[in-house]
Amino acid sequence: MTPVSPEEISTVLGPRAVEVTDAHGWTVCRVEPDQWYGCLADLNRSLEMDYLACLTAVDLLEEGRMDLVVHLMSLERRRKLAVKCSLPRDGASVRSVRDIWAAADWLERETHEMFGIHFEGHPDLSNLLLPDGWEGHPLRKDYVEPD
Amino acid sequence: MSSQIKTQELEVNMGPQHPSTHGVLRVVIKLDGEVVREATPVIGYLHRGMEKTAEKRTYFQFMPLTDRFDYLASMLNSALYCQTLEKLCGMEVSRRAEYIRVIMMELNRISSHLVFVGTFGLDLGATTPFIYCFREREAILDLFEEAAGARMTFNYMRPGGVAQDLPAGFDRKCRDFLKKLPALLREYDDLLSDNRIFRERTRGVGVLEARDAVNWGASGPVLRASGVEYDVRKADPYSVYSEFEFDAVVRTEGDCLARYLCRTEEMRQSIRIIEQALDGLPEGPVSAKINMNLKAPAGEAYHHIESARGDMGCYIVSDGSTKPVRLKWRAPSFANLNIISKLIPGWKVADAVAIIGSVDIVLGEVDR
Lengths: 147, 368
Hints:
Chain A is an alpha/beta fold.
């Protein structure tokens, strides 16, 4: 499996790819949050990124932002690529990719309950792993554990 | 008498305490008579906040916990964690250690698949194979106990290698077992694979189309039984897998029987790999000297391996300190399980049991 090259990303996303880096065998491409859905849809279509392996967030408290990260693969073409976008720590919202990859169904639900990121258009963002009515989002760095 | 009999949809909870749900899984099913109209898996009963715990432990302190994601395939879990860490830190692993890891991982794949075969038979009313499968699994657990000192949650892998070298006599005992296993697997075929009741209960039941399998993020035997040739060991080779000859088992039917047959054949492939690894086992050290207060360089690494249940991934983000900023576990069962909401509707309750069993989930890694 080979990482998608910066040139290929440039061809598909053009200036929408804000930054392209390498992380130990995975190309990481950063896009703006309002381009999140559009970019992922284009990558899915143009590079046959048919497989969503992982979707999660990282709370970077000191930098005052959260990163949303998705790890994509093309099973047919044996390619891999990670896409990121930076979100504000409060009131973060991006369009759900549930309609592109059904795999995002539970992953977005989990990211919602754990980080408080809203996914517009997701059919059901109720708690998945946490009990109903749980207060706070446990994977945020400022989360205070209950006694 | 009126020909119109009033019917009413019935909502039933299967689990979280139910033998057929393989752990604490709850499936809310809407029934129209005996036919399931809707099935919704409800998870989280085994949620231990392991990803949060990882942020509060040093890289070494978290090591023993990794065995507890998919507790039926602990060797694979801890190997994944170590390999991700090694990637992030640019650590070298000796060839002997990599070979030993492969032996342990493949033995664990067999023991995990044995639990599947046994419990799947049990789900469908065949009690005998369960006893046989656990008998063979015991032999593997004995080998693990000799090497690691534990029969489950081994804590055997280490960043940079393994905890200790193989004990004296391991090679012979392992080979003896591998020699016996094919005949035993044929015995299971007599009991299950070629059993008419078993085949009728699984053939054509819960068919998963290749397109859907990929879209839902299915992996492992669940994906390959639907005709998609994707095995991480082949597609994105890691460790020393590229040095061994084996086949990625693929079937095209996509039904419960195909998922079962994929796993029984995979055990035979694992035997091939272990025999080659034992034959070619290089000499040398098995562990590296590593600071217990290991600091991972700032950055991130994503690594994935073929676990017993499929594509298992680990994502670590580091800020250069002794603890990860974020650790995310991509559990194959997590993706595979959600698909049952698509597979079950239209089938009868008894088939729902077969479908859940055929997916082979471990709630430890689903809930984490």
